[in-house]
């Protein structure tokens, strides 16, 4: 371990009640104090804090786009001009003049879409807080109630039989995406996509999805009034983007329209088709919670380190569920530590990646898996404890961590305050260099260690 960090680590008794400011002050005092032996080993994630940042760590606010600084009237005029300029491209793609008139005649630019698209919350909910809501007892109860309805049961069974997707997995997507159909979004999709295109930051995506939305109108699957969804353009009871609708939506009730807003057979068949086309393996589960053997190296919890569940069992991994005799059969499985080495562990494989094709978030994928298990009556939730005493880093603090890692020669990517794969890999590499458990989980304690080291020369003690 680096002599400087070793001395700081020995000197400071990390307390989960300390703020980051207090941690930094304690570490600053340690830098000039002689080392002392700790009474017992201390985990690097043992600190949690109310977020606080030094002046040096304050990030610049994102600059406003041209569309954001306009008045509502100017924004509306720009949307109308953009739509007019887009018409030749749409005509060339085969969209009729009648459809273009129906789509763009009542066009209204939506300033709230820009506000939502640009909003960057300073704090991201930790995974356990997200799961408390996503897989709550009330949601499970509501899901079981809906599953008992004959029409819902029939639609799910039909989709499952046709596409090989488990009934309860489809129900989990339905529950998370629209609260079992109750909250599909009420934003006009054409208006939202034109607004995003005018903003310019995501114009290529917005143009592509707008053209797909126009094709939906031309095919007669929905009219403009039905084409409602989220501010980002996701539609229906399982929130398909227009391009996904074109490639995956199905008319399962035989009425000649693919209706993901009101037809349960269409909703479930379309969702099942999406998952099947992304390679869902019917013979494998999404994953399962596991118990790790003593001394398990967190570095082995990596999506690039894949082997069969039988091979993991040979290393000492076993199911967290005491009723399960052995690990579920999975090929190319890896260990996931979504809250670092102090939280629950999961073994996931191919189907986990299929779920992430729907939403590229580990929190989301875990919520889908856990909710599907609860609806199927397979378990009562996560058995291991989450490290709830840990407070999340703010966006500003994550930017400070990214800058500190970059200054020490690691590659965390852009200092944008988003904890993505590059930042996680850089943090794990730094933890490994310093002899700390390399779980890649950002904590107040690790940030407190990183900040004093940034710009500081190596010191011998």
TrEMBL record:
Record's keyword annotation contains Nucleotide-binding: no
Signal peptide interval: 1-33
GO biological process: peptidoglycan catabolic process
UniProt keyword annotation of Glycoprotein present: no
Domain Transglycosylase SLT as annotated: residue spans: 81-373
Any one GO molecular-function label of the UniProt entry: peptidoglycan lytic transglycosylase activity
Pfam family, one: SLT_2
Keywords: Signal
Lineage: superkingdom: Bacteria
InterPro entries in the cross-refs: Lysozyme-like_dom_sf (IPR023346), MltB-like (IPR043426), MltB_2 (IPR011970), Peptidoglycan-bd-like (IPR002477), PGBD-like_sf (IPR036365), PGBDSf (IPR036366), SLT_2 (IPR031304)
Domain Peptidoglycan binding-like positions: 396-450
Cited Gene3D superfamilies: 1.10.530.10, Bacterial muramidase (1.10.8.350), PGBD-like superfamily/PGBD (1.10.101.10)
PANTHER family: LYTIC MUREIN TRANSGLYCOSYLASE (PTHR30163:SF8), MEMBRANE-BOUND LYTIC MUREIN TRANSGLYCOSYLASE B (PTHR30163)
Entry protein name: Lytic murein transglycosylase
Organism expressing this protein natively: Paucibacter sediminis
Upper classification of the organism: Bacteria, Pseudomonadati, Pseudomonadota, Betaproteobacteria, Burkholderiales
